[in-house]
Structures are given as structure tokens and as C-alpha cells.
């Protein structure tokens, strides 16, 4: 458990403990600190909610961070173990899951070189725990040490869990039923009529009510692709990409044309290469467009799995 000794020894330990105690007192003063439902023990965290969901919560209990990605096979082995242990430990730590594809800034701030990577935040202080799909016995030992440090150095006793809140929480979290057939049919009709902006809006209307609607997500990705290629001159776009290999926008345009024309591997390879050759905002544009094209093809397609592996090699 690299980093725990350093954390316990840092000169700022007493100051961090005092801040944690102040945060707990402020939470209590505002009427917080009540028991939480079991579902609150495992949370998805993004950059916008990091301070609230991780830093502030770390004044009550250690927050274990699981950096993962959909294409990462070892992540699929590790994440269920961490989730099960979070419920078993019943509030002695909170598990925060961070998708590195959607949160590049956090990945860079933590210096993530490969995933899965597991960190912890205790009273606002971050420390590395382990990397890779570690055996469960090792994970338990690491968590026990982490909890001990939180208790002894910072007075963190964990959060109370209300087991009876689970049914209500599950019911509250269920997506609204809907009827979406009319909206989906309107989107299809707009696509057939070549009204791509109208189709995009129709699919977005469904997703605003039901963010997990698979049909709407796929339809939106397809409609946005068709809207992008609809205004392109294919011959000119390909010539621009050949003449300006460092122009990310030119490469994005041809990747869209390739995918719309059925040349899936060519589109993926072009964007993976663009990610490899660029940096900063240009690299992020290429990466996000590649993820968009993955949505068009579908995550079950073997060509998507192959391209995700190639992207991972470029990124990490």
C-alpha cells in the first residue's frame, strides 16, 4: 500500500485532521451527516462533482477511487470486487468510480499511467493504493490499513448506512417510464427525410428524459454523423486531409466520410493515428470523435474492441 506511510508522516497531518473535524462539525451544523442509503456507498464521479463527492466526503470516511474505462478488461474484473467490498464494509469507506475516457483532467492530475488504478482520498489528502486487478485478499488488507490510518490520524469513523432506505432509493433511481415511441418514430422520419438537425433534436428529447435509452443513444450518434457529412465535399475533404496531415479537423472529416461509407477500420485507424500525433485540444478532439464513432458502430462490434485497445496503447 504505497503512500500510506508517507501520508501518516506528512507534516500537514494535524492540519488535515483539524480541517476534517471542522468539516464534520459544519456538516452537523447544517443538519447533514444523516444515514445514507446503501446505493450512496458506490458513486460515479466526474470532474464537476469531484470536490463535493470526493474531497468533502473524505472528511467523513476514506474515499477509494477506481479509475476505469469501458474497454479495459482488467477493470471489469476489479470493479465488481471493489463494489462488493464497499457494501460489505458498510460505510467505512466510499467507492468513487471515475471513467478516464470522460475525465481526462482528473486522470492527468492523479498522474495515471495505466488502468485500473486505485487511489484514496483521506481528509482531503490523496494517496496511491495499487494498480491492476489485485487479488481480493490483498485488496482487503489494503482497505483495512487505509481505514486504520483514517481512524488513527484523522478521526474518520465512517458514515452511517440506512439499510431500510434501499427499496425507496432503487425506486427513486428508476428512469421515468415514458412513452418514447412517438419521439423515436419522429426521429426516424426526420432521418428518412434528410432532416438531420430535426432527428438530432428528437433523439435528444428522449435522452433528456431517459439518459440510458440505448435506441436513442445509437440514433443520436448516427444522426450527428449524417449531419456532419451532409455538408462535406468528399473529394475536397480527402484532398485536404492528404495535403494537411497535421490538420485535425481535416482528419475528422475524412474519418466521418469513411465510417458513413462503411470503411469502419479506416475511420478508426485514422483517428487513433490523429490521437497519437497530436496533443492538447487537438488530441482531445480526435479522441472524443473516435468515441462518438464507437457509438455509431456499437460496443459489441469486434472492430470497436480492437480500436479501443489501439487507443489505450496510444493514450497510456
UniProtKB/TrEMBL annotation:
CDD domains, sorted: ybbN
Domain Thioredoxin: 30-148
Gene3D superfamilies: Glutaredoxin (3.40.30.10), Tetratricopeptide repeat domain (1.25.40.10)
Superkingdom of source: Bacteria
Signal sequence interval, chain numbering: none
Matches recorded under Pfam families: Thioredoxin (PF00085), TPR_19 (PF14559), TPR_20 (PF14561)
InterPro entries documented for this protein: Thioredoxin-like_sf, Thioredoxin_CS, Thioredoxin_domain, TPR-like_helical_dom_sf
PROSITE patterns reported in the protein's UniProt record: THIOREDOXIN_1, THIOREDOXIN_2
Protein name as it appears in the record: Tetratricopeptide repeat protein
